[in-house]
Design brief:
2 copies of one chain form a homodimer. Helix content of chain A is about 50%, strand content about 20%. Chain A is of the alpha+beta class. Chain A folds into 2 domains: about 1-90, Orthogonal Bundle (Arc Repressor Mutant, subunit A); about 90-160, Dna Ligase, domain 1 (2-Layer Sandwich). In chain A, the strands form 2 sheets. In chain A, strands 1-3-2 form a 3-stranded antiparallel sheet. In chain A, strands 5-4-6 form a 3-stranded mixed sheet. Chain A binds a DNA duplex through helix 4. Chains A, B: Belongs to the Fur family.
Chain lengths: ~160, ~160
DNA sequence: ATAAAAACGATAACCATTCTCAGTTTAAAA
DNA sequence: TTTTAAACTGAGAATGGTTATCGTTTTTAT
């Protein structure tokens, strides 16, 4: 997977964007933190560890550029900040997430769940689908387990007091 | 449908929120502009026509309150503003939208498209689904037609010049 | 009527993001 | 290589949607 960076570099070069240390460090950070849904601020702080002189504006500019190059996806969970995900190589342009309303963690779900739905939309609404986002909000298995545990210990306590 | 307002009023009263003219005017505006995906600013300007003395902060406060009461849904299309949709009565808590990347209009699509997908998610990921959002980004039928028309006239022009 | 609690309008504060600008770096041409 | 123009950068100001503050007004219960 080491040539993933190389491929991104090549892509920049082909479109006559310059290969700066700041951009390289940013890509590096994104690669090292896949699945983490980093905000621009997050990326900024992480890049600063490698390249302390970098400015926040440059991080924003680089993320915007990578988004246009379709290297990262800019996504929004409605919490007031944009998050930037490295796109899986060869992956279609989709976003399927499970957002836990208890602990806030965001998990991914498999692609292709929506192929059928997409067909229906294209046909019934004459809408040419280029991209989609599907986000489920609910309670993840970890929080369900936690809640169950709390319930049980509350029950035990109630037995003692009664 | 006139008692829709009444029901919302009742709901406010039951939860001991006060029934102020500002809140009433805001609900009225939302009812008169369903399907429009109004931003807070939009609502503010429309309410101002009925009640010119209202403040922007009050509109935000009211929309926030209505969102908590599950009367409106606060949604985000990634364009930097939150939009507020009156929830259909009896409708499940879902958001299905078609966002046109050409003209920016947002259309609704029918509910129930995802019942099957939701089941899979609950089973395979042990994730208790409370809500979901599905947004397709693409080109609406209007813009498809417009593009086709432009193409044709360009062709005609090219025939003349050649 | 009166007092406590809620709600209000105006506007300041906040905060994520974008813009500006003067100085620096890059990469292609000389 | 050196040169040069365009691209890129960091710092911080500006922007814009949203939230917080505060003194005043309105509502509801006593």
């Amino acid at each position: 997977m080491e040539n993933r960076v190389e491929r991104i570099k090549k892509q920049l070069h082909e479109q006559s964007y310059k290969l700066t240390p700041q951009r390289e460090a940013t890509v590096q950070v994104l690669l090292e933190n896949e699945e983490d849904h980093l905000s621009a601020e997050d990326v900024y702080l992480l890049v600063k560890e490698k390249a302390p002189e970098i400015g926040l504006a440059t991080v924003y500019r680089t993320l915007e550029l990578l988004n246009e190059l379709e290297v990262v996806d800019k996504i929004n969970f409605g919490d007031g900040v944009s998050r930037y995900d490295l796109r899986k190589e060869g992956a279609s342009h989709s976003h399927h997430h499970l957002v836990c309303i208890e602990c806030g963690t965001v998990d991914e779900i498999q692609e292709d769940l929506l192929a059928e739905v997409e067909k229906i939309v294209e046909k019934d609404y004459q809408f040419k689908v280029k991209d989609h986002r599907l986000t489920f909000h609910g309670v993840c298995h970890r929080c369900q387990a936690k809640a169950k545990k709390n319930e049980e210990s509350a029950e035990a306590a109630s037995l003692h007091t009664n």
